[in-house]
Design a protein that fits this description.
Length: about 575
């Protein structure tokens, strides 16, 4: 099987002419007149595949919708002997819409079942078309309800009820219930009931899009949540046990006189500005260590590795005693090197890894509390395209649902300003009441804020865990709130946070970001661990770090002895930007 092995690619307008009549007959476009259909046609690209070619795989980032013009497509989960077919779709049917509507990764894989010709529509065009042609939302709702009902029917046949969930009704009753849910959804007051019904479906995450502009039709989506498995993978990796043996070159203990070298692998994130911030945090800490000669028996030697940590740890350079990574380095599932994760929860990073940040799930819980206190009934989430972002979005959706708040839209990556305009149009249609942003660079909220401003929308905007600099936000006339664990953001940090912020400003002429502070802390914590352990031997350093107790850092004050820092209610700070002064306050 080849991937993307299409044998001819029709260019816009050229190959499509052949399919013009067929295009006009696609049921999805039934509500559009001929002129609109003809205009729409220009947005599509025609592609051809051979039988067996894979169009995309489960879990991938999805940026296109496909309509089948000729042939068949198999939609399936798993691979090899574990492959399960969800559907075989034929001419004039479409697939790939879920990732576009939710921003989640592909919920299933798609393979050409026969030689195949499809029309492909990229996300920007999809968002715009959905916004411009409301009737399409109703078509999507219809197909979606059918797919969901079929999945429900089949899963109730093949599996018993999952643990801790109410038993499903019989297959026929499920279909009725789906119809009832759809009917309930048409009455605006029952939208929450419908959202609850979707959330109770067998699929772990449900998304309901209220398209209230058209007779209150509601799209209820049942989707495979990726958040849970991402989190499981993350912590499985983080929980690499103390029994994995350290690199032999590191069993060095202190020799008389000379400082012991502690090689540190620094995995820079893919995002360029975050990578610069992280590197600066490391450099500042190194300079501080040298200047203060705080731990004279040890000399840290950072070794930068790029590309989001996808390089192998054992790539020929000195085996590191410790690693620092923004978040889970991909492909490091069995790393035996202890790692300080700048994101994630201290409580969840077991074994040899220690996370410095607050877990995205903890943020999500606090944000849901706040949303409930403000009496918001329906919100949209924009989250960064990372494991932490996905965890946050999934956890917020769950926590919000428990409080009767509907997450009307959940998306990641807005590729262009025009796409943002379309997204805001969608939020308006969905009657979103607030927008929650999860972004560790602090750059997304100002972007979204200025988009909202331009569109004349004034949703309260909640931004974190890196809150944007106050001076980046005043263009937005709506209310802006921040949530963070970064003491400097919260302007309530201790002496360590203030001293770090001063040093950073002096060195680089700007305020430090959250990731810079976390990287600064990470380097100092590694030096402290070696000093406490009296050794550069990884296992001993980890033990020493975990017994370090309360330690005031630049990012925040950590409690390494606490065992669990989650849910204490005091870890996450909520701030409000006062529009007149352009300042954050608690
Ligand atoms: N149970 C199903 N029946 C039919 N199509 C499905 C089913 N589940 C997923 N799909 C389609 O497969 C696609 C996989 O990628 P997306 O999640 O973007 O969008 C998905 C739907 O278009």
């Amino acid at each position: 099987m080849t991937r993307f092995g299409f044998f001819s690619v029709g260019r816009k307008g050229k190959g499509i002419v052949l399919n013009k009549l067929a295009f006009l007959e696609i049921p999805l476009f039934v509500g559009l007149d001929r002129a609109h259909k003809a205009a729409l046609l220009q947005q599509f690209t025609q592609l051809s595949y051979r039988a067996g070619d894979i169009l995309f795989e489960e879990g991938e980032f999805g940026d296109s919708l496909y309509i089948i013009m000729q042939g068949k497509t198999r939609i399936y989960l798993g691979s090899g002997n574990n492959e399960t077919t969800l559907a075989i779709l034929g001419e004039k049917e479409y697939f790939g819409e879920m990732a576009l509507l939710t921003g989640d990764p592909r919920s299933a894989s798609a393979r050409a079942e026969s030689d195949l010709v499809v029309l492909k529509l990229i996300k920007d065009s999809f968002d715009r078309i959905l916004y411009e042609h409301n009737t399409l939302a109703v078509q999507f709702a219809g197909i979606l309800a059918k797919r969901l009902a079929k999945v429900n029917r089949e899963s109730s046949r093949t599996a018993g009820p999952p643990p801790e969930e109410p038993a499903l009704p019989e297959p026929e009753a499920v279909e009725e219930a789906s119809t009832a849910e759809a009917a309930a959804a048409v009455r605006p007051n029952d939208r929450r009931a419908a959202a609850g019904a979707a959330a109770r479906s067998r699929l772990p995450v449900a998304l309901c899009m209220a398209a209230s502009f058209m007779a209150g039709a509601l799209l209820c989506y049942g989707l495979q949540a990726d958040g849970a498995s991402t989190a499981a993978n993350l912590w499985q990796w983080a929980a690499v046990g103390p029994d994995s043996s350290p690199p032999s070159s590191l069993s060095a203990t202190i020799a008389d006189g000379a400082a012991v070298e502690v090689p540190v692998a620094v995995y820079l994130p893919k995002d360029a500005s975050a990578a610069v911030s992280m590197q600066r945090g490391v450099e500042l800490a190194m300079a501080d260590l040298q200047a203060s000669s705080a731990y004279p028996r040890f000399r840290l030697s950072p070794d930068y590795r790029g590309d989001g940590g996808t390089e192998e740890l054992s790539d020929g350079s000195a085996a590191p005693a410790f690693a620092i990574a923004a978040s889970l380095p991909a492909g490091q599932a069995s790393a035996s090197v202890p790692t300080l994760l700048l994101d994630g929860a201290a409580a969840s990073a077991a074994g040899r890894s220690v996370a410095l940040g607050i877990a995205p799930g903890v943020y999500a819980g606090e944000v849901a509390e706040w949303l409930a206190r403000q009496s918001f009934g329906k919100v949209a989430i924009y989250y960064e395209d990372s494991a932490a972002g996905r965890q946050f979005a999934a956890a917020l959706e769950k926590a919000a649902d428990r409080k009767g708040i509907l997450v009307a839209d959940r998306l990641t990556r807005i590729s262009a300003r025009s796409a943002l305009t379309a997204v805001i149009g969608k939020w308006k249609l969905l009657e979103t009441e607030a927008v929650v942003v999860y972004d560790s660079s602090g750059e997304a909220a100002p972007e979204i804020g200025s988009g909202l401003q331009a569109a004349g929308a004034r949703y309260p905007l909640l931004a974190g865990p890196a809150v944007p600099a106050a001076e980046m936000m005043p263009a937005y006339a709506g209310e802006v709130y921040g949530y963070t664990d970064f003491a400097a953001d919260a302007a309530a940090g201790g002496a360590a946070a203030a001293a770090f912020a001063d040093k950073y400003r002096a060195a680089y002429g700007m305020a430090p970001s959250r990731i810079a502070a976390a990287a600064y802390d990470a380097v100092r914590l590694i030096a402290l661990s070696a000093d406490k352990a009296g050794s550069a031997e990884p296992a001993r350093m980890v033990e020493a770090l975990k017994a370090a107790g309360v330690w005031e850092g630049a990012l925040r004050t950590y409690n390494f002895n606490a065992g669990s820092e989650t849910g204490s209610g005091s870890l996450v700070r909520l701030l409000k930007l006062s529009p007149k002064q352009g300042e954050w306050g608690e």
